[in-house]
From TrEMBL:
Residue span, MacB-like periplasmic core domain: 21-248
Cellular component GO terms, alphabetical: plasma membrane
Keyword Aminoacyl-tRNA synthetase in record: no
Pfam families reported for this sequence: FtsX (PF02687), MacB_PCD (PF12704)
Protein's name in the database: FtsX-like permease family protein
Domain ABC3 transporter permease C-terminal: 291-412
TM ranges: 21-41, 287-312, 341-362, 382-402
Membrane topology, from the record: Multi-pass membrane protein
Length: 419
């Protein structure tokens, strides 16, 4: 039940020595601010590092061929081989729990030799032959038109989808793009769509200088036959691609007469494995943030507890009078606990507000200077704020518990004797 007299007493006690109250409150203020800031900085690092993965489906891996390191079935060491279109069908039929398999071929390279011409303008771009599934593995924002489709694959249409970097290099401002032709290594191709990467960090500039073509069209136009340069393979959500890798490698080795123990013949990059490592690292950093912040906060709580012990000592006679007039031990204890709780929560809320201001300033600076390597959008979730509030309430109760027990153990007669 609300008691105005009780709150007047609490405020009077806190105002009795304002400088001491401020110094005591600063410990909690600084501790909770450090806790929130550490978690925000950890989240900023996590956002920056995971941005390097882009929006690519993280339960994926890339797989390509390399030279063999062991002779096998009469074939020499150092032999090179290529994946074939049939390998894709074999993986789909024999390896369960796979969501997408995208065979890919590649031509040219960003900052390489000029390979695309439109009128008098030329440029060097990444050219990929892909299947429609690839956009589900690497989300793209389609700005105009569409992405490649299975009708393009089946009809081997000479169409392409170009990135924003290609548009800037080959087209004038406000010029119509859809329905125009560009020449890729001497082959005229119709532009049916434009895109930008969903994530502009990492290799965003290189990704923007990319052109996608139907896989079958690419193979026919650039004499790749049935060869597949590499594959992007994604597992279903509840199965890790890392657990399926051995089965995929074993199948490919058997189909291409590679020694079963030749681990160098098949190159791969396991995005899921790398993502799990990064996630594990930041889980540890989050724990460290909580741990260090809690230690700093604990020093402030100890300070409040010490001050409350001093306050109880100073008010010994007052407590004795109240006990003599019939105040219950719980009445005395609850007032001490309330004073401790009010001081802790007020100072803690100021600390959270200060941390929020610092986070806002950091984000404003980042927005003005642009992306920073491995750091982006430092922030904390609402769950962290609620956790901080719970910590404050528990800390306030703990800080006042010892002084409150000390106050209730006094005998009224002994308390009245103290001058």
């Amino acid at each position: 039940m609300f008691s105005r007299d009780r709150w007047d007493e609490i405020l009077e006690a806190l105002n009795a020595n304002k400088f001491r109250t401020l110094l005591t409150a600063f410990g909690v203020f600084w501790g909770i601010a450090i806790l929130v800031l550490l978690l925000a900085l950890t989240n900023g690092l996590k956002n920056g590092v995971t941005a390097d993965f882009g929006d690519f489906a993280t339960n994926s891996m890339f797989m390509w061929t390399q030279g063999t390191s062991k002779p096998y079935k009469g074939l020499p060491k150092g032999r090179y081989f290529n994946y074939k279109v049939d390998d894709v069908a074999a993986i789909k039929s024999q390896i369960p729990n796979l969501k997408y398999i995208s065979p890919r071929n590649q031509l040219g390279g960003y900052n390489g030799a000029n390979n695309v011409v439109r009128g008098t303008k030329t440029g060097a771009f990444e050219i990929y032959g892909d299947y429609p599934e690839y956009i589900k593995q690497q989300p793209l924002d389609i700005l105009q038109g569409r992405f490649i489709s299975y009708s393009d694959i089946d009809a081997k249409r000479k169409v392409c989808v170009v990135g924003t970097g290609v548009v800037k290099s080959l087209y004038d401002k406000d010029e119509d793009i859809l329905g125009t032709y560009i020449k890729i290594n001497g082959v005229n191709v119709l532009v049916v769509g434009t895109f930008k990467m969903s994530n502009s960090q990492g290799d965003g500039e290189q990704d923007a200088n990319t052109i996608y073509m139907p896989f079958t069209t690419f193979s026919q136009a650039f004499n790749r036959g049935e060869n597949v340069g590499w594959m992007a393979i994604t597992a279903v959500d509840d199965v890790s691609i890392t657990s399926l890798k051995p089965q995929i490698f074993e199948l490919m080795k058997s189909r291409h007469k590679v020694h079963p123990e030749d681990d160098r013949a098949i190159g791969h990059f396991d995005l899921s494995e790398q993502f799990e490592r990064v996630s594990g690292l930041f889980s540890i950093l989050t724990f460290v943030g909580y741990f260090v912040g809690a230690l700093v906060l604990m020093s402030g709580i100890i300070g409040i507890s010490n001050i409350m012990l001093i306050v109880v000592k100073e008010r010994t006679k007052e407590i004795g009078v109240r006990r003599a007039l019939g105040a219950s031990p719980w009445s005395i204890k609850s007032q001490i606990l309330q004073e401790s709780l009010v001081l802790t929560i007020l100072s803690g809320m100021v600390g959270i507000s200060f941390a929020a201001l610092v986070i806002w300033i950091m984000n404003t600076i980042l927005d003005s200077v642009g992306p920073v390597q491995n750091f982006a959008n430092p922030s904390v979730s609402i769950q962290v704020v609620f956790t901080a509030l719970i910590i404050l309430v528990v800390s306030g109760l703990l800080a006042g518990l010892i002084p409150a027990n000390s106050a209730t153990k006094m005998k009224p007669v002994d308390a009245l004797r103290i001058e």
